[in-house]
């Protein structure tokens, strides 16, 4: 049973339908070609661009730029905001948070090497940014604020409207990592006041390998990949298959209906686990969270061991962000929330794709209880 939707959601039925359309007509023409097949591909691109824009609450499809992933989208937004200033000889200041996705954290290293001053906003024990802390960090040279709206590990939702307003009042550009918010929260990019909004296809039921970035009017894209495609904003022949399925998946999104189906199930799951297994903690409890995500910590247990034990029992979960898989360090998100290294290493994440029968989750609770009990017994025997 798959309980790791935040790593990659199951394919949307509409995305599957779009994929199957290529089985009856396997031609994937180049949208840059001027012949009739190329023009048909260009129309598909335009339709998908409109579908993605509408899902983000925008009536201007030309503000949507297709990328290979949410990672590329995030890095393109940051590069575009900072590189031009660096080239002009400025030393801009960039504010981001201590709980960002790895794609943003990697850009911090690049920025420091280029002479950018980078500040990391702390979060409280619930994973929330204090707006007063943000106010204290602003400098005259602050150029960019990067925020992850919904945390990929805990599901915690930042108060984006408040933080965006503070950035706007200072004339600071706002970049939002919206990958985990897309499809889970109602989105209206113009009302948010952001300059960049980045999303990833495989978080909403499109295949991996496609993402998008929405940019506000007046922003300028500095390409990471040079070429004529995407109006000179991103080079390389467009991933038509990915673009078409992304648009199809975006057109099916209904975050309010989805949350109504899923939130009660997630809450029931959390309550049942806490009642059944002593020493369970819910990371981010008390903060606003998206409906499908729970991050659970178990005293005296190593999270990765639980992931392996539950996999053998037939349940797929994670011990953190899939983009950091293979890392031996504890979750930087949980450390930022005040957990010790041992506590941060004892957590797992369960993320539901949609509603499912309760007896399936009841079986998961049985398997989790058994795995935690075995792990705690093994630890006691070693002490």
What order do the SSEs take from the amino end to the carboxyl end, as H and E? HHEHEHEHEHEHEEHHEEHHHEH
Main β-sheet, spatial strand arrangement: 1-7-6-5-4-2-3
The computed structural class is alpha/beta
Rg, Cα atoms, Å: 22 Å
How many strands, which pairing sense, and closed or not: the largest β-sheet?
7 strands, mixed
CATH architecture of the largest domain: 3-Layer(aba) Sandwich
Shape: globular
Low-confidence runs of at least 5 consecutive residues: none
Give an account of the 3D structure.
The chain is of the alpha/beta class and 383 residues long. The chain is built from 13 helices and ten strands. The strands form two sheets. A seven-stranded mixed sheet has the order 1-7-6-5-4-2-3, with helices on both faces. A three-stranded antiparallel sheet has the order 8-9-10. Helix 7 links the parallel strand 5 and strand 6. Helix 1 packs antiparallel against helix 8 (240-251), helix 9 crosses helix 13 (358-382) and helix 10 (303-312) packs across helix 13. The protein is globular. It starts with 12 loop residues before the first helix and ends with a helix.
Short synopsis of the structure:
By secondary structure, the protein is α/β, with parallel strands linked by helices. It is built from 13 helices and ten strands. Strands 1-7-6-5-4-2-3 form a seven-stranded mixed sheet, with helices on both faces. Strands 8-9-10 form a three-stranded antiparallel sheet.
